[in-house]
Every structure is written in structure tokens, then in C-alpha cells.
């Protein structure tokens, strides 16, 4: 994933574009670039390897213009360097293109253009676009872009400048997000509303196969294939610019962890229905008769969203008594799965744009399946493609690693499980019990976060481990999976997660004093089984950090977590392990908000 931002209007464009890039840097940060149409005509371009601050230091003081596009990159084709950074120009340096996505047939297009005498400057697939547009003989920029895209196979979100058409920016979308921002006699474009909300909250989201022309006082949208006008009207987004500030915290991750109590309150607000001991989820578009006909639930996500889906599947089985499981969307869509008309499919994505999840949704819809979405971003591609769903209302999440969105997604699944359970066989008493547990969550989360200093002290003991193991049984296993992922992402310490029951089937061979184990040990009906696993580790001189409702004697340290209902305990048990990963990364002086080799939302394969 990469970040795109563009502007056309009356204001000096360079500061606006640089500000937008800084807000989008979590989507890619190995190189950046900017192109503007200068007042004297022609294009002016600056590019730099590294962070946006490196680009900003290279932009000349006299870099005036009122129209421009910019890009911050997460490399897919070609190493991070000045040349491979976007924007890419055509041979005559009249066309500048910024591109998110992957052009699948770039090698063939590149070979053909090279045979025609085109010399490529970069190793990227994206440069193909600038040459295709530059070589088009069409009369308008819109037609030049449409003609070029007819040759392209793959995914793209693009913004195009042309020196001969300085009064417009042309953009197009296919599989990678593009949003327009409507201002007062000025227009913006970006790959994420984060770049726009400090200037406008009137947003137009392009659909796949759609293009737009932006002028200072107007915009129009139309289809890529036929050029037919489409009716896209602005919508008001609820997120504000302040949501993207650090708010006095050292990092976005720390801020977002500490927003979890408020975020969980937000996902619950207005949804609990005490009269019938259930919840209201009007966006599901699933009536009671349809809900009772469901024979299986399949949850699809990637990374953290997949782990949230694992928690959700267990809740649905426990509360609704419907067989449920979670699977990585990236695997599901390639194994020619059997699509059952009695199965409810649920797509999970923080951004709502994750390519593997979106592609799985599109394949399921093609085969006639009912698909719901559990997403954070209103109006995102997955939200629009699915039959209904639940918004998790976590608010903007800028840190590359997900914390509050993971927590809110698991709470959203608890709401869905309760809703399905009460339609089926879950008793009123159990419904009330779960509702009371949900209401306790915000304060219990706040209590965990208030104890971060103790976890900070513990982190120093684990910062120099070369490898760590995370274990949990049944409800605790998805928590262990997510905790090990967090540690890997931001500390670069190797970590593995196993079901505690699987230790004796191989992983015990790894146990030694230098390999600590983090154990999820809730006070549930499996407590004694979990304690037996701790005995096995101690017998092999392993160090143990337990996350539990009570002090575990066999553990070297125990992080105490307030107890909720057994079905909801996994929501709480993951939060101290977010803090553990965070403070371990601080101890190692890692770049926590921007881990190496990663980007926030992956909209390429």
C-alpha cells in the first residue's frame, strides 16, 4: 500500500501536499515524491528515498504552483530509491503519474514500449502508465488516461498531471482506493481520507472502474470503460483532523491503545436492547428467519483481522451454537472453496480495502453467497461490496500495527454472536449476563491501561530474548496468536504461538531458560489444564509470564487482568500483551509506528 494526495485550487500546493503525505506516511514510508504544474508552465518534480521529511528537505523554497500530486511509497517493484519513487514521468516529461497497486502485465507492456524505443528510468511497474499516457494521441487528458488503462491488467489507484492540461487532475480507481475532497473552489484527491479531513469533510469515494476529473471549482465522475457520466455525490465523514494527532502521546500506538476504553464504549453505544436481552444491528440486513437458516459461519480476514475472526468464531459457536471458523482470506480464495448457500460469510478488515479480503468477497458474491462485512471505515470497498455488516467505530488508527481496531472488532463479534444466539437458543438469562459483561468492558480496559507501569518494568526482562513462545488453550489461543504477531511486528523478536495442548507434540523441544513463554491462563474450566502446561515448561527450566485472573505460582511473573464473562475474557486478555510488545519495542528503540518492511493496509497481493 502507498499514499496518494493531490490538490487543485488557489493555494500554494507544495505545503498542502507535504502535509497530506505526512498524514499518509503510515501507508508507506520508504520513499516519497511530489510533482506540480509550475506557474511558468511544465512540470516540476522532487523525489527522495526515505521518509517524507527527507523529501521536504529537498523541496526548493521557490517551488510555486497551485496544482500538484504527491506519493509516499511502500515498495513492491524496484528497490526504495530516488529513481523508483513516484511520481513517474513520460519521455517528454509532460505527464506525471502516482500509482497505488500492481500492474500484472507490466513486463509485457514494458517489453513492447522498449521495442518502440521508450527508455525506462525506473524498475517499477508504475512507470509503464506514464509512458502509455504520454504516447497516446487522444485529444483530451481524460481520453489519454482511458486509452492507456485499456491496456492495463491489475489494480490501480492513480492520479495524473499533464503539462498541456494544467487546469485539471485526472484520477482512476480499480482495486485501490481513491477519494475526492470537495472544498470551496478547490479540490483534493487522496488514497485515504486522513489526508483530507483537515481541509474538508465532504468526501466522494470512487468505485472500481471509475474515473474523475478534478478542476478547481468542479469535479465530474465517469466510467473508465465507456466514459459515461456517473452520479457520485459528496458524503460528510465523521472523523476530524484532531483524530489524527498524537494528543500528547509519544507514539500513535500508545495513543490508540489508550483510546480503547472510549472506542469500545462507542461500538456498544445505541446497540444494546435490554428489553429482549439482545442487541440491535440494523446494518446486517439479515432478518430472523434468514438468521435461523444459517448452518455455518465462515470468517475471512488477514493478519490481525484474521485473529479477531478466530475470537469471533469461538463466540458465535459458544453463544449461537452455529459451527464457525476463521481462515486467512489470502488462502481461502486460492483453494477453490466449496461455497454453501447455508453458510454466512463474514469479511473482516480494518481499512475495508484489504485486497485479499476484497477479492474473496467478490469471488463469494460471484458464486451467490451471502457476505457480511465487519469493517472500521465507512464507505470502504468491502462495506460497499457486502450485503450488510457491522461498523466497529474504532476511529482512525494511524499506527501500522492495529490495537484498538482489533479490540473493537472482537467486541463487534460479541454483539453479532449475542444477536444470533438470542434469535436461536440463547436464554434470556445468558443474554443479560453477556450484556452486563459488555457494559463492564470499558472500565476494565481502562483499569488494565492504568497498570501499564508494571508492564513497562517487565518489558525490560524480555527485550533481549532472541525468541519467545506464546501459548493459550481454546479461547486463549487466538489471543496468543495476536500477541505473538504484535511482538514480531514492532520489536522484530521472533515469536511463535501454539495451542497449549500442542506443547508436548513438539514445541517443548524449544524450551530453555533463554526462550521465555507467555501463557494465557484465564480462570475458566480449563484452568487446571493450563496449569499443567506451565508445569511442563518449568520442568524444562523455562521462564514464564502468565496473563491471568489470579497469580500463577508456576509463573515467574503474572500480569493480572480483571475477570469478565468467560466468553468475553479474550477481549481483555490481549490488551496487556499489546502493552508488553509496545514497551519491549521502546526498550529496543524501535520505530514503533512505522515498523520496517510493513505498511498499514495492504491493497496489493
UniProtKB/TrEMBL annotation:
Residue positions of the active site: 2 (nucleophile), 600 (for fru-6p isomerization activity)
EC assignment: 2.6.1.16
GO molecular function terms noted in the UniProt entry: glutamine-fructose-6-phosphate transaminase (isomerizing) activity
Keywords of this entry: Aminotransferase, Cytoplasm, Glutamine amidotransferase, Repeat, Transferase
Taxonomic superkingdom: Bacteria
Entry's localization field: Cytoplasm
Protein name: Glutamine--fructose-6-phosphate aminotransferase [isomerizing]
Organism: Streptomyces polyrhachis
Gene encoding the protein: glmS
Amino acid at each position: 500500500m502507498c499514499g496518494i494526495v493531490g490538490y487543485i485550487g488557489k493555494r500554494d500546493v507544495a505545503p498542502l501536499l507535504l502535509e497530506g503525505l505526512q498524514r499518509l506516511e503510515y501507508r508507506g514510508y520508504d520513499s516519497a515524491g511530489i510533482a506540480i504544474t509550475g506557474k511558468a508552465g511544465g512540470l516540476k518534480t522532487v523525489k527522495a528515498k526515505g521518509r517524507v521529511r527527507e523529501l521536504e528537505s529537498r523541496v526548493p523554497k521557490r517551488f510555486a504552483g497551485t496544482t500538484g500530486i504527491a506519493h509516499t511509497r511502500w515498495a513492491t517493484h524496484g528497490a526504495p530509491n530516488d529513481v523508483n519513487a513516484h511520481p513517474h514521468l513520460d519521455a517528454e516529461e509532460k505527464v506525471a503519474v502516482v500509482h497505488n497497486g500492481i500492474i500484472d502485465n507490466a513486463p509485457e507492456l514494458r517489453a513492447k514500449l522498449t521495442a518502440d524505443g521508450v527508455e525506462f528510468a525506473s524498475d517499477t511497474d508504475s512507470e509503464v502508465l506514464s509512458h502509455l499516457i504520454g504516447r497516446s494521441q487522444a485529444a483530451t487528458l481524460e481520453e489519454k488516461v482511458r486509452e492507456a488503462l485499456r491496456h492495463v491488467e491489475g489494480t490501480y489507484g492513480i492520479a495524473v498531471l499533464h503539462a498541456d492540461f494544467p487546469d485539471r487532475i485526472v484520477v482512476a480507481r480499480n482495486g485501490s482506493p481513491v477519494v475526492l475532497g470537495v472544498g470551496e473552489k478547490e479540490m483534493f484527491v487522496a488514497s485515504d481520507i486522513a489526508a483530507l479531513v483537515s481541509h474538508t469533510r465532504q468526501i466522494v469515494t470512487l468505485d472500481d472502474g471509475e474515473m474523475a476529473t478534478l478542476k478547481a471549482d468542479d469535479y465530474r465522475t465517469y466510467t473508465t470503460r465507456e466514459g459515461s457520466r456517473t452520479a457520485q455525490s459528496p458524503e460528510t465523514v465523521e472523523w476530524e483532523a484532531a483524530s489524527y494527532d498524537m494528543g500528547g502521546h509519544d507514539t500513535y500506538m500508545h495513543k490508540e491503545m489508550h483510546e480503547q476504553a472510549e472506542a469500545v464504549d462507542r461500538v456498544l453505544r445505541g446497540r444494546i436492547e435490554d428489553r429482549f436481552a439482545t442487541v440491535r444491528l440494523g446494518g446486517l440486513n439479515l432478518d430472523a428467519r434468514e438468521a435461523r437458516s444459517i448452518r455455518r459461519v465462515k470468517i475471512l480476514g488477514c493478519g490481525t483481522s484474521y485473529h479477531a475472526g478466530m475470537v469471533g468464531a469461538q463466540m458465535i459457536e459458544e453463544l449461537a451454537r452455529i459451527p464457525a471458523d476463521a481462515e486467512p482470506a489470502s488462502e481461502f480464495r486460492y483453494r477453490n472453496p466449496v461455497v454453501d448457500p447455508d453458510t454466512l460469510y463474514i469479511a473482516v478488515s480494518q481499512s475495508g480495502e484489504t485486497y485479499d479480503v476484497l477479492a474473496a468477497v467478490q469471488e463469494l458474491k460471484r458464486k451467490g453467497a451471502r457476505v457480511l462485512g465487519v469493517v472500521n471505515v465507512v464507505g470502504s470497498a468491502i462495506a460497499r461490496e457486502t450485503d450488510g455488516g457491522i461498523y466497529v467505530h474504532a476511529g482512525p488508527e494511524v499506527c501500522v500495527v492495529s490495537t484498538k481496531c482489533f479490540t473493537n472488532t472482537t467486541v463487534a463479534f460479541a454483539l453479532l454472536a449475542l444477536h444470533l444466539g438470542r434469535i436461536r437458543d440463547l436464554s434470556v438469562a445468558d443474554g443479560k449476563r453477556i450484556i452486563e459483561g459488555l457494559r463492564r468492558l470499558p472500565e476494565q480496559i481502562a483499569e488494565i491501561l492504568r497498570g501499564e507501569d508494571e508492564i513497562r518494568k517487565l518489558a525490560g526482562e524480555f527485550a533481549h530474548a532472541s525468541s519467545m513462545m506464546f501459548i493459550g488453550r481454546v479461547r486463549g489461543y487466538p489471543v496468543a496468536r495476536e500477541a505473538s504477531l504484535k511482538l514480531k511486528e514492532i520489536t522484530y523478536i521472533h515469536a511463535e504461538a501454539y495451542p497449549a495442548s500442542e506443547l508436548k507434540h513438539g514445541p517443548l523441544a524449544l524450551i530453555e531458560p533463554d526462550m521465555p513463554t507467555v501463557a494465557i491462563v484465564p480462570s475458566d474450566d480449563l484452568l487446571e489444564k493450563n496449569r499443567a502446561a506451565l508445569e511442563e515448561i518449568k520442568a524444562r527450566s523455562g521462564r514464564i509470564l502468565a496473563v491471568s485472573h489470579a497469580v500463577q505460582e508456576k509463573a515467574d511473573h503474572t500480569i493480572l487482568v480483571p475477570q469478565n464473562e468467560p466468553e468475553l475474557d479474550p477481549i481483555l486478555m490481549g490488551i496487556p500483551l499489546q502493552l508488553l510488545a509496545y514497551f519491549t519495542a521502546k526498550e529496543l528503540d524501535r520505530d514503533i509506528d512505522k515498523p520496517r518492511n510493513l505498511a498499514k493496509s495492504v491493497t496489493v497481493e
